[in-house]
Amino acid sequence: MADRIRLTKRHVDWARAHPADKDQFYWDAELARFGLRQKAQRPDGTAGALSYVIQYRNREGLSRRYTVGNANAITPDEARRMARGLLAQIDDPRERHDPAADKSQARDAPMFQDLVETYRNSDGWQNKASSTRAIEGGLITHHLLPLLGKRLAREITRADMEKAFRDIRDGKTAIDKPSGRPRGRIRVTGGVGTARRTLQLAGPIFAFGVQQGTIPSNPCVGLKLGSSGSRETIVEDETEYASLFRALVELESEKAITEPAANALRVIALTGTRRGEILNLRRRHLDLARQRIVLSPHEHKAGRRTGRPKVISLPAAAVTILAAAIADGIEPDALVFKSAMPGAPISLKKPWAKVRARAGLPPELTIHGLRHSIGSHLAMMGASGPEIQAALGHANIATSVRYIHFAEARKNALAERAAAPAIAGLESAKRSGESAAVIALRPSVG
């Protein structure tokens, strides 16, 4: 073949039939800087790959070569049209496009799974409570990585995140398979709540990437995830609390739930402590003489940010339960509420479902809703933000103030309900008055 010819399919076929012992370039006579590259013959005797390329200089004057396409996939005319468009962008002084540099950047750009790995090695992740890392790790492993792991992090858009929300909500990432342990299974469900929590986690991961300069923007900014409504579902009043504690007694006596599980739920309901704080409660945390639980900074959620221990005041009923649980003189580091497996914390998921159903409580009331119940009732009784903050151990008072806003909304709703009969009477009187006025204005019939 001549060094410079008008590339046609005939020339491509000729090159394919004549393997070369080193890389060869055949430049097009019609379009300058466009050509066919023939890779050297492979050691096994097969012909080297054929591809269309362009040669150009970037804005710094450096020579670059860029592959337009595979000669087995597109025709010379198609490749020439593509090359002409690329060269026009490269030559445009306003753009100075550099496709080889863009390709190199794309090759070096991290995928979402790489961004996640870097995030999980960061101080921000390591400073989270172990229980939080366990929960969020599950959301990453079972939802975010299957949907986005192989995508370039910088190319993920808000539309992609909205689709991820729908996929998780609709159960497309749900699994149910053996765990490898005897009779054990891995069950991952979808739903709106799981989708919301997963994308609430994705936001900080992308924000970390922006902060590190890995990606240009956070695709989760502006997402409408809705409200979980968890603070709206609480144990409403004395009647519901009575049903709750009655259900605990009944199920415990029926051996439907264990005594440690029943007592753990009682303490959570009485104190508003977090589930993890009670499940991991050890003998050394108890100071029953002063009616309190004391957790060191690294043993409670807010302590990792505040550096302060958490002191949980105990009502007399909770002290009685805890005193009975440690009556056998357990070791200081032993768990207060023991499971059947030595050294392992108990699980409250199934016991709570049974208790909630037996008590006739709303199905959306979670164990964490027992904590919200304490905060909400404190606010409705007039407690201040700092008082709620002290009672629940919030690191940020803004979290406590939300309960006050919730209480105000509940009071307003209650006022509307209380005034409903009076309002109905007012509207009836207005309608009667209007009717009388209409009658008075009618012309009389002589």
Features:
single chain; 446 residues; alpha+beta; DNA polymerase, domain 1; hpI Integrase, Chain A; five-stranded mixed beta sheet; elongated
Side by side, the strands of the main sheet go 1-2-3-4-5
Helix-strand topology string: EHEEEEHHHHHHEEHHHHEEHEHHHHH
User: Which secondary-structure class do the elements indicate?
Assistant: alpha+beta
Q: What's the N-to-C terminus distance?
A: 117 Å
What characteristic shape results from the CA principal axes?
elongated
Over the alpha carbons, how many angstroms does the gyration radius reach?
A: 34 Å
Q: What is the top-level CATH class of the largest domain?
A: Mainly Alpha
- Largest sheet, described in full? 5 strands, mixed
Ranges where pLDDT stays below 50 over 5 or more residues in a row are none
Fraction in beta strands: 5-15%
Percent in helix: 40-55%
Number of strands: 10
Notes on the structure:
The protein has helices at residues 9-17, 76-91, 99-108, 112-120, 123-126, 130-148, 158-169, 192-212, 238-253, 259-271, 275-279, 303-306, 316-325, 349-359, 367-380, 385-392, 397-441; strands at 4-5, 24-28, 34-38, 50-57, 63-70, 175-178, 185-188, 286-287, 292-295, 310-313. It has 446 residues and is of the alpha+beta class. It folds into 3 domains: 4-108, no CATH class; 112-228, Tyrosine recombinase, N-terminal domain (DNA polymerase, domain 1, Orthogonal Bundle); 235-402, hpI Integrase, Chain A (Orthogonal Bundle). It has a 5-stranded mixed β-sheet. The chain has a 3-stranded antiparallel β-sheet with strand order 8-9-10, with no helix packed on it. Strands 6-7 form a two-stranded antiparallel ribbon. The radius of gyration is 34 Å and the shape is elongated. The mean pLDDT is 83.
